[in-house]
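Listing S7. Sequence submitted for prediction.
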Amino acid sequence: MSAAASGSASHSASGSGAATGSGGNPKKPERRVAKSLIREPTKAERDEYNKLPVLELDDLEQVQYLQTLSEGWAWPLDRFMNEQELIECMNMNTITDAHGKRHILSVPITQYLTTAQKE
């Protein structure tokens, strides 16, 4: 066998061996776990949170809307709708994002308050 022929034969053998693990089994891709974005608040943050007003949600529908917003299912909304967004949603079945682009959204997602809750 010539040197060129033996070199190509060894190259192809080593090339196929690099793609397989021990025993000739193909390697599985390495799994990566994303780092959690949840962290414990600092003392200053906790003190600030405790000063914020609290609104008790006693209606299951309002709790479900809050969950929808918090999980991102109502994107581009990241909060309850204001009056302008509510009117747009009811009349045009759209919502306009911060960049001026309209998105289809036909379900108004609002949080109502009674006068007692407001005070």
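Caption to Listing S7: primary sequence and predicted structure tokens for the chain studied. The two ends are 94 Å apart (CA to CA). The chain has five helices and two strands.
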